[in-house]
């Protein structure tokens, strides 16, 4: 349970996130006692819990949503301390992320993403961190003209020579820092002239899942490469994945599945060596489900596309050790499909791992899997969980009860994924 302990006691404090976003800086004045202690641990980068590795994410408004969220939750789930900082922002402030997705036009479309909380002051001390992550997106442009941001990148890439992860457009920061010369580098295709003008060696991002490692500099086209990005970043930080045996994980989804709740576990589990596949009753392999983003006011926005990787008729339970049920509105479709409900029920009957986030609990309730169980549930499923016989319903966080893992919402993804990794016997060990 070491990884889960790190998540609970490290740099992430899920309970305060949404409240901090709702009230902004005024919320800080209202905190007292234990809550004040939680906020202070968020505010100070020097308080990093028991983690043996710590990573800084350099943020800004309109950074690509997945390119911030996936490293954030992946590293946190693995017990790595993660801090987020941005010029002009204080801990408790938020950056607005951007969703970049191809929707049938010649260039990707930009859609509004999530509010992403900052947890550290800027500028940060690079010596306090073992790696730097810079998401892509339009945030890169103002960062490239910010002297402190450029100095931070230079410190990691040139002076400290510690791992720097640059995705999509953020390779511009490496050029601005004068650190591109002679580096083998990939990026989104439009960044090729920047790489070559700055003296780098361009590597075609083929396949899109490619992560190029040139010493301590890691580059990728963007979020489609997150499985390899996670693998390479852990390696560069001295991490070794233990217990990965290509365990099969099946993600059941449909249109309007929650954006983070589907994609983040999908990418993280693949990054530590699991064989992760996605299936939908109404989609063929290669087709996409549209995802939904729910902001702090509860409004629904369109998210990224989430591609189905296996035909529904080809789904066989024997191929998997775990079934994962993201929330959003897609469970309303899945619960009307007899095969989906019976599949979830059969996973439990055979002693396999069943995992669900918030509205995914509708399938658990229908399959009779909540009776006599402890679970975590957000507001949408709390009454239904009780009606289905849950003996205790936690309003936040993630709960493991035997082979059943539940989470209240996407803000609990790090703890949720940590439980999954623990039950799949996957851990990460870092060299001293």
UniProtKB/TrEMBL annotation:
Domain of life of the native organism? Eukaryota
Q: Which residues form the DJ-1/PfpI domain?
A: 54-235, 249-421
Q: What InterPro entries does this protein map onto?
A: C56_PfpI-like, Class_I_gatase-like, DJ-1/PfpI
Pfam families referenced in this protein's UniProt entry, alphabetically: DJ-1_PfpI
Q: Which SUPFAM superfamilies match?
A: Class I glutamine amidotransferase-like
Q: Name one GO molecular function term.
A: lactoylglutathione lyase activity
What family does the entry list? Belongs to the peptidase C56 family.
Q: What is this protein called?
A: DJ-1/PfpI domain-containing protein
